[in-house]
Amino acid sequence: MRYKLTFVVGLALGYVLGTRAGRERYEQLKKSARQVAQNPAVRNTAESAAQQGRQFAGKAYHVVGEKVGDRVPDSVAQRVRSLRERNANGTGEDDWGTSTP
To answer: Is the pTM above the cut of 0.85?
Structure first.
């Protein structure tokens, strides 16, 4: 799914950058993209995908943590701790504006 989405976004971007239709076509495409992005079904699907990604990342983190153990350098461990603290004390949103659990 991610590869299809990347392909479609790349195709649309290439069309917009390569088109010679002018400003009118650009505005029309921009309006269509905004409508798609604001569609509740699209937003729900994107949030679901983000949530699943966070869940898989959490599981992977625990599996890797168990296998790696104390072999992680202190600087890396400190960075992970600081990121966790920032997320725990933060606004509940990541850099892209999606909510975090």
So the answer is: no
